[in-house]
Design goal:
The complex is a heterodimer of chains A (586) and B (86). With 586 residues, chain A is α/β, with parallel strands linked by helices. Among the domains of chain A are: 109 residues, Flavocytochrome C3, Chain A, domain 1; 114 residues, Up-down Bundle (Methane Monooxygenase Hydroxylase, Chain G, domain 1), CATH 1.20.58.100. In chain A, 34% of the residues lie in helices and 17% in strands. Chain A contains 16 helices and 19 strands. In chain A, strands 1, 2, 6, 7, 8, 9 and 16 form a seven-stranded mixed β-sheet that branches. In chain A, helix 13 packs antiparallel against helix 14 and helix 14 packs antiparallel against helix 15. The longest helix of chain B has 13 residues. The termini of chain B are far apart. Chain B is 64% helix and 0% strand. Chain B is mostly helical and 86 residues long. Chain B has a single domain, classed as DNA polymerase, domain 1. Chain B has six helices and no strands. Classes of the chains: A alpha/beta (586), B mainly alpha (86).
Chain lengths: 586, 86
């Protein structure tokens, strides 16, 4: 196959907050930058982030980065790397000011400073009074940031490949990553983009689970590309589930509903949280509520014809309270669940929301290919955002730290790439084998004939992940799940497209996404099976305690042989004293 | 100006319905599959125009219940809100 080729200093895969903030640093430094995005950039999932960005600006209440660091380390259940967390919390401040100067319309205080709101998990003075640390642009923070960064990139002449799907990383003979093979979704034509440096910024992978709050685009593409390139994924067992998503659909029903007095019931009308959390009841922590819901369903007390969800009852609050204090919930429930919560309960089930794990990087966004703590980063390859794991969230992410993570590490990866390109100014020759392998993988989907459809296998896979690697994690069912997902991986070779057209072939794009989902799904299932403790979002009823002696270490998963290795948590910060592990009580 | 080819290119429109928000993915894709082909040309043009708006605005109209000023646009949004996705 004759391939069209383009050359850039840097190739960025993904156009969410991480990709666009990195691209802007690079384009402003006059590097030749390409951004590849499978959808139009401002339709990236960053647009769905409403909450805001944490930075210790101290505009509303006293604050400093060290308190922010304490909260983040504690929130991570002590699995976060404290050097990276210190760096992120310090860099949060210049990152937010840079966004402000670039034109992000942050909400303001009467004195003109950036308004900051209080969020759960934020404290003053190392666990004291509530802090107010989250900078927001009304309830459209993600959109405001994405829109601003996109416009600034257009000004700075970043080259955008909109509606191109990244297929695989391309390497040279020594294994150095030198760009990617991408597919023009509009024409079906592949394109080889050669680059001196490559940044993976492809976002999360919530679509591995049947019920998720993530958009359809969140299929873990960059994570799977890293796995196929022989790189590990780190801490993939740590997946944050929100307890109340609309059953079978995934859209979030805010915790505010339970805060206002809504409560959960099973098929017998029993208010079951009273059994699991007699004091906090429906306001128990997210993981407790999520696990209780799944337990009710597993023990045959679920609602609906398949008994696969529970109900969230709010009608007793009355129409006025629902309209006044829970705007949006009534509309969402009517449209996506077909019920009016003023009269009927809302069917709910835990929904996969955010993955703490990802492609392991150091605090400069450089990809770390081995379990060795003092090993070298892979030359020229970077990752940032939800697809990456700089290990700032550890086992659990705090609200307001996800936008922060993508913006800080996108920016810092950009700065580091500028230095790398100064010292590595020439393009290196590609490996023909590496290109051929990627083209083969693409052409495999041209095979016609009878077979399993993409949608059939995707449905089976996502249900299996939900049942065996979701909220409820015990040894036997997880071991069973790993075997089932491996069997599904074997079935991929029997999948055939139902549409072989060239232009805007969604069937082919979804087949490529399915390969990615399955590879990433296995990393979650295998990593979760082997972590025999409960920490942060990873909750094992058969190993209910956090075991710092044995398990204060990161999981690394490789696709080849479904191999696992571990490496220690970096508990030594850069300039301050380490926060030793303590019981996490709020 | 939206030409005839663009109106009929369902494959392209299907990809344009991939958004940054799950709510819009589900609603817009369902509307496209269930109702788009039966719409008069005028309303099909409006749908294509709608897809060019930023996600939070489409969300405010189609999920949040805000009403666009233009009456025909408001009619389209009402049809999208009434699409069966439950």
């Amino acid at each position: 196959m004759a391939l069209d080729k383009q050359r850039f200093d840097t190739l960025i895969l993904g156009a969410g907050g991480a990709g666009l903030n990195a691209a802007l640093q690079l384009a402003n430094a006059n590097l030749k930058v390409a951004v590849v995005s499978k959808v139009f950039p401002t339709r990236s999932h960053t647009v769905a982030a409403q909450g805001g960005v944490n930075a210790a600006l101290a505009n509303v209440l006293p604050d400093n980065w060290h308190w922010h660091m304490f909260d983040t380390v504690k929130g991570s259940d002590y699995l976060g790397d404290q050097d990276a967390i210190e760096y992120m919390c310090r860099e949060a401040i210049p990152t937010v000011y840079e966004l402000e100067h670039n034109g992000v319309p942050f909400s303001r205080l009467p004195n003109g400073k950036i308004y900051q709101r209080a969020f759960g998990g934020q404290s003053q003075n190392f666990g004291g009074d509530q802090a107010a640390r989250t900078c927001a642009a009304a309830d459209r923070t993600g959109h405001a940031i994405l829109h601003t960064l996109y416009q600034q990139n257009i000004r700075a002449k970043t080259h955008f490949y909109d509606e191109y799907f990244a297929v695989d990383l391309i390497k040279d003979e020594e294994g150095v990553v030198l760009g990617a093979l991408v597919l023009n979704i509009a024409t079906g034509e592949p394109l080889l983009i050669e680059s001196k440096t490559t940044l993976l910024a492809t976002g999360g992978c919530g679509q591995v689970f049947r019920t998720t709050s993530n958009a359809h685009i969140n299929t873990g593409d960059g994570m799977a590309m890293a796995l196929r390139a022989g790189l590990p994924l780190m801490d993939m067992e740590f997946f944050q589930f929100h307890p109340t998503g609309i059953a079978g659909k995934g859209m979030l029903i805010t915790e505010g509903v339970r805060g206002e007095g809504g409560y959960l019931i099973n098929k017998d009308g029993e208010r079951f949280m009273e059994k699991y959390a007699p004091n906090a009841k429906d306001l128990a922590s997210r993981d407790v509520v999520a696990r209780s819901i799944v337990t009710e369903v597993r023990e045959g007390r679920g609602c609906g014809p398949d008994g696969d969800h529970v109900m969230l009852k709010v009608d007793h609050l009355g129409e006025d309270v629902i309209a006044k204090r829970l705007p949006g919930i009534r509309e969402s429930s009517k449209i996506f669940a077909g019920v009016d919560p003023v009269q009927d309960p809302i069917p709910v089930f835990p929904t996969a929301h955010y993955v703490m794990g990802g492609i392991p990087t150091d605090r400069f966004g450089r990809v770390m290919p081995t379990a060795s703590d003092d090993g070298d980063p892979l030359p020229g390859l970077y990752a940032a955002g939800e697809c990456a794991c700089a290990s700032v969230h550890g086992a659990n992410r705090l609200g307001g730290n996800s936008l922060l993570d993508i913006l800080v590490f996108g920016r810092l990866a950009g700065h580091n790439i500028i230095e790398y390109v100064k010292q590595n100014s020439a393009h290196r020759p590609l490996s023909d084998d590496s290109v051929a392998q990627s083209v083969d993988r693409l052409e495999r989907w041209d095979v016609k004939g009878e077979g399993i459809t993409v949608s059939e296998l995707r449905k089976e896979f996502r249900k299996t992940m939900e049942d065996h690697a979701g909220v409820f994690r015990v040894e036997d069912m997880m071991a069973d799940g790993v075997e089932k997902v491996k069997a599904i991986r074997d079935k991929l070779k029997d999948v055939r497209l139902t549409d072989h057209s060239a232009t805007f072939n969604t069937n082919r794009t979804e087949a490529l996404e399915l390969e990615n989902l399955i590879d990433v799904g296995l990393s979650i299932a295998v990593s979760a099976l082997h972590r025999k403790e409960s920490r942060g979002a990873h909750s094992r009823p058969d190993f209910p305690k956090r075991e710092d002696g044995e398990w204060m270490k990161h999981t690394l998963y490789w696709k080849e042989g479904d191999k696992l290795e571990y490496k220690g948590v970096r508990s030594q910060p850069l300039t301050v004293e380490s926060f030793p592990p303590k019981e996490r009580v709020y | 100006m939206i030409d005839e080819g663009e109106l009929k290119n369902l494959d392209r429109l299907r990809w344009q319905c991939r958004r940054g928000m799950l709510e819009l993915d589900v609603l817009l894709e369902a509307f496209l599959e269930q109702h788009y082909s039966e719409l008069p040309t005028r309303m099909q043009r409006h749908f294509i125009q709608l897809l060019e708006f930023p996600d939070p605005i489409i969300h405010a109209w189609c999920v949040g219940g805000e009403k666009p000023d233009d009456e025909e646009f408001a009619e389209l949004v009402a049809s999208i809100r009434a699409t069966s996705v439950a």
